[in-house]
Specification:
It is built from 9 helices and no strands. The two termini are about 30 Å apart. The chain has helices at about 5-25, 35-40, 45-70, 75-100, 115-135, 145-150, 155-170, 190, 195-244. It has one domain. The mean pLDDT is about 90. By secondary structure, it is mainly alpha-helical. The chain is elongated.
């Protein structure tokens, strides 16, 4: 079951885009390029940017539906990236909630044990709004069985990016103030590759499990909706026959 009223869908998605964009901008600076480089290296910010772009594309799709006055199927690419965005923002939520909050982690230079407004936007609000969009506004089923494996491309590329960045770009004298590794569990320089790879393996398993939970929810809700639609159609046909 999902809401088909495209005006409601578009209104929600425009609000989402505004809040997501605002949450990202709160972490950036017009004048501080070092801060921007640091912030853009966080998986949190990259996952929020992906969600912003995917929701922007989804809103455009909704506008087209309104203009044509009919419900249109998502393009395969849009469905795929909606699933990928759903996975990475879910990773962001659980990593922050379970792993990072215990360490006083913050995406800045000052350690804090309290929840900041910035953290509220990118670690909680956008994940929750993404889940709401999936449950209430996305046609189902939308994902293919192998999609959860393919979605792993996003966290894998991030992992490779951080290792390369930490090894080769951190040493540049022109980049004073750049954090070598944005997360302690990726800090090869301090803990070594074995420690980091152990964490990477745990995250890989967690990502696969989360990906298939998303796929299963999508499939199950789609199956339920199809059965419910069939029952309604049978009841309508029965009423028509009785009226005759």
């Amino acid at each position: 079951m999902y809401i088909k009223n495209q005006t409601i869908v578009l209104t929600y998605r425009l609000i989402y885009i505004g809040l997501c964009g605002y949450g990202i901008l709160r972490h950036l600076s017009v004048s501080d390029s070092i801060r921007n480089i640091n912030m853009l290296s966080y998986f949190t910010i990259q996952s929020n940017i992906l969600c912003f772009l995917v929701m922007l594309a989804s809103a455009i799709h909704t506008i087209v539906c309104i203009l044509k006055d009919k419900e249109l199927k998502y393009l395969r690419a849009l469905s795929f990236f909606r699933g990928m965005a759903f996975l990475v923002i879910t990773i962001t939520f659980f990593t922050y909630s379970i792993v990072l909050t215990q360490t006083g982690f913050t995406m800045g230079n000052v350690t804090t044990h309290g929840l900041t407004i910035n953290d509220l936007f990118v670690h909680y609000m956008i994940p929750i709004m993404t889940w709401i969009d999936f449950v209430f506004f996305q046609p189902k089923p939308s994902f293919k069985k192998l999609d959860p494996i393919k979605w792993l491309g996003a966290p894998f590329l991030y992992f490779i990016f951080i290792l390369i960045r930490g090894k080769y770009f951190y040493t540049s004298k022109t980049l004073v103030g750049i954090k070598r590794y944005p997360y302690y569990f990726l800090d090869v320089g301090t803990y070594g590759y074995l420690y980091v790879l152990r964490y990477a393996f745990i995250f890989l398993i967690a990502c696969i499990v989360m990906g298939y939970v998303i796929w299963l929810l999508d499939f199950s809700m789609g199956l339920f909706y199809t059965k419910l639609t069939n029952i309604r159609n049978r009841l309508k046909d029965k009423l028509r026959i009785e009226e005759k």
